[in-house]
What we know:
Shape of chain B: globular
Radius of gyration of chain B: 13 Å
Mean pLDDT of chain B: 89
Oligomer: heterodimer
Strand order of the largest sheet of chain B: 2-1-3-4-5
Strand order of the largest sheet of chain A: 2-4-5-7-6
Largest sheet of chain A: 5 strands, mixed
Distance between the termini of chain B: 9 Å
Distance between the termini of chain A: 37 Å
Low-confidence stretches of chain B: none
Order of helices and strands of chain B: EHEHEHEEH
Number of helices of chain B: 4
Number of domains of chain B: 1
CATH topology of chain B: Rossmann fold
Shape of chain A: elongated
Strand content of chain A: 5-15%
Order of helices and strands of chain A: HHHHHHHEHEEHEEHHHEE
Number of domains of chain A: 2
CATH class of chain B: Alpha Beta
Radius of gyration of chain A: 38 Å
Amino acid sequence: MDTFPKINSSEYSDLTNVIKWFILLRWVAACGVCITLIVIQTVFGYVLPYALLYTLNGILLLVNTGYAFYFFRLKNRNLLRREIQFFLHIQICSDYIILFLLLYFSGFLSNPFSYFFVFHIMLTSYIFASAVTYRYIFILTALFLLVTAGEYFSFLPHYALSAPDSGAYRELIPQRVIGLTSTLVISAYLTTTIKARLEEKGRKTEIELNKYKDLDNIKSNFILQVTHELRGPIAALKGYHEMILKGITGKISGHTSRTLLKADHRTANLLNIIDEMIDYAYMQSGSRLKNKTSALNAADSITYNLEMYEHMAQEKQINIRTTCPRDLYIKGSRDLLNIIIGNLLTNAIKYSPERSTIILNGEKMEHMAHILVKDQGMGMKADELDSIFEEFYRTRAAREIEKDGTGLGLPIVKRAVQSLDGKISVYSEEGRGSSFHVYLPLATKPQKE
Amino acid sequence: MAGETILIIDDDKDIIETMTALLEYEKYRIHSAETVEQGMEMIEEVKPDVILLDIMFPEKKTKGFDAAKDIKSRYPKLPLIVFTAINREYAFDFTKEDIKADAFLNKPVAIDKLKKLISKLTS
């Protein structure tokens, strides 16, 4: 059993990608070295210890094969935190050593590829903290100075790129060593600074993102609290109305009963308004809407809403006819589906005459689920139809039938439909009724059912 | 067929009062508790046929959710109805399926609907 946690954070998954990238770069580098050696040997004819150089390149290939085997096969790309650090250090060290030796045996400071260390520095500072990068720079510069001094004072042999340049090489050593080491230090400084700035930016973005997430939480808690604080007392209020109306508290007169029924009706309306306001606030937030989508059974949703509002229909002796296949599944969130069906159904009941019929159907239509809510109500005028999905708009007839109303029901429905990637259309004829057609994406039947 | 014993667990005294009156009117025997702890103790004592449990309690907004799990693990066969004033799942971090209850109702509860549900759950 591993005692260290597996690496999951983005930072470490990024480092895992870096390892993959390093291994790939090393293959490219080994190919590059091989081609360069062939070219300078055959085209330029330089006298160099080629056997040694090819061997070094072979070591590079061998080492990289080892890294690839360890990373992809042994560890299956899943390293522990401390293993990643250690593995990266090993790789960086081997790269520095092999490049250093390749350069030493091929002209050292006179080799133009000595500036390739800049790339190593850039990669080092990309992975490690700046202190670590500067430690690498310090050791590298010290090594350069040491070997250069060795060559200058003839303690170490110089492997010249071409035979006649040995005198000129010695003269140019100070300039070259200054040029190279300053390039390395400056590149280290620049890359670590740029990296620090980018990290700072990243941190700020993360803070912003967290703030946003906190706000989202506050908002959802607020909605929860408001819903509870407003709906709770109304639930109790309706309970008391029912107690009085049923005569539990004592016998009441017909007049009291009728008055209380009116009060109860307004209370129910108030509840409806609160729901619409809260749904509207929720739909405005938008960010969390798609989080909880699943395969919902359309027939279940229709039944749920039917049970929820059938008392409203019974009061007006309205007959609600529904058909829906049992195997119709909609991709969406239950809240949004209830918002859609609930609003359309209650509208149909509210604006239908007594003893009329409402049709509430669900069916599969091509690649969509089609939900139809059709009433025999008062219908709408053509010019009113254009505005019904606008916020706070209420038709004149709607205002006459029901004084309380937010004019938010249909805009909420439209937003809910859009959130589920669906479409809504309406056909209406004044005096004959309206039909709302909602098309929602189908889902496959969930396995557990 | 009424007459079942129902245990109502809800912190809202008014909900307890109205639900008790309305359900007693329908000939049910009602016991009630204002805290989850008190309710848990009463289960053994009154041996209810059905429990009606609220979700939001003052000390924790999802206390009833935890209590539902607790009740269902201790008394898997005891019918449990969860009821709450919150009518949208988005306000919670969980869905109805996460709550191991036999039914989920919104307040205000329609008594006829509750009666049907109780007789279905106890038959």
